[in-house]
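In the laboratory, one determines a bound structure by crystallizing the protein with its ligand and collecting diffraction data. In a computational setting the workflow is compressed into a single prediction: the sequence and the ligand go in, and a structural description comes out. We illustrate the idea with pyridoxal-5'-phosphate.
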Amino acid sequence: MTTLGISGRSASEIAESVRGLIERADLRPGSSLPSVRALAEELGVNRNTVVAAYRQLTQAGVVVTLGRGGTRVADLSPVAQEGFAADSVLRDVGTGNPDARLIPDPARALAAMAGRPVLYGEPVVDPGLEAWASDWMREGLGPDVDMRLTVTSGAADAVERLLAQALTRDDLVALEDPCFLTSIHTVRIGGYRPVPVPVDDEGMTVAGLRAALEQGVRAVVHTPRAQNPTGASLSARRAAELRAVLREHPFVLVIEDDHFSMLSRRPFHTLIAPGHRRWALVRSVSKFLGPDMCLAVAASDPETAERLAMRLTPGTTWVSHLLQRLTLALVTDTATMASIQQAGDHYAQRNAAFAGMLRDHGVVATAGDGLNLWVALPVPARTVSEQLMRRGWLARPGDEFQIGHREPSQRLRLTVHDLDQADAEKLAADVAGAIRAAGGRLAEQEVA
Ligand SMILES: Cc1ncc(COP(=O)(O)O)c(C=O)c1O
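The predicted complex, in structure-token form:
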């Protein structure tokens, strides 16, 4: 046995002993394991035996190898998550939530919902929803696209299953940088390696996607509009350029997460060219029917759909037909659709108005599309968010959305569409005050 308590003669025994130490918390997340040479000497085994043991542990996701940084026990401590912060007395303006008042009331549709009970072994997609969603997807992808539909428990569920049906541990996945927190989490938990692709005002950059493909990514997850957190939407020109870059990589799985779909004020442009072989367009209803509906529709190429369906254990696991029928009843109801359009206008107007209030205080801001505002700061965001806490606000610094370690972020993500006028004006003044208190200068010429 070694000083750390590792024992064993074969690779499996050594790996088993390390797992036992981790289970018993004798080895903590993040702690270093001995080098291959040192452990081989201590245990009196061949170095290749230790290499094989560490490989087994890496493949199981129990340890991570950091090149020269050695081998460490994997640290899966929670990363930042979307939604309200638990246990905070501060006013939370970082939630990323839609406004509960703008989520259609399902009571009438629920009361009118008819339908016989569904039993094991029946088709998992409700035929009515399938017909409606096929038309919806074809509007974006073209009438002739060869596709199949899958219904999942939301977009995050779809992305997780889509990656799992195509990838193995350590595979590379291109993610937008900055990125939606759940996608960062999904890639991390799946044991894949994220490759950051910078996002500018028109979406993923061409050079960024090209570099990621050259590194060998097996999947690309991107947001065609209302990118979270930046609010960027793909321009027609950028989409065409990115499709051209993808032409050489038809089997790289392209996942489009069109999460803001019906609420978006921007046109949908796809990255999926007609010849692309592995793709999925995911549209969740979370933003316009509410996160608790837990439902998304995924259109994909037939092979991907088949493998995705396998992961839903056909015939025994599915998204409740009650939810599917309720979704259909709501999206085919004229009054509900009108209220969804109004909600989309409301988010756009409130965010544009708040960006105007910030500019009046000398804070440079423009509203993109989506629920959030992505505000550029002259100083690190963490210092500004600390100052905002003193003024009673909880805001999200951009660092949480960055992939990998980089410079401190100079961005704040604010969810402000649900503030009334007085609170919005107070927050805008407080952001300016927080920047000043953190040592930042405001744009003098724009001060009212
Ligand atoms: C980019 C993006 N995708 C997906 C989601 C969530 O979708 P779902 O609730 O269907 O998992 C969100 C929610 O904030 C989002 O911002």
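The mean pLDDT is 93. Keep in mind that any predicted model is a hypothesis to be tested, not a measurement.
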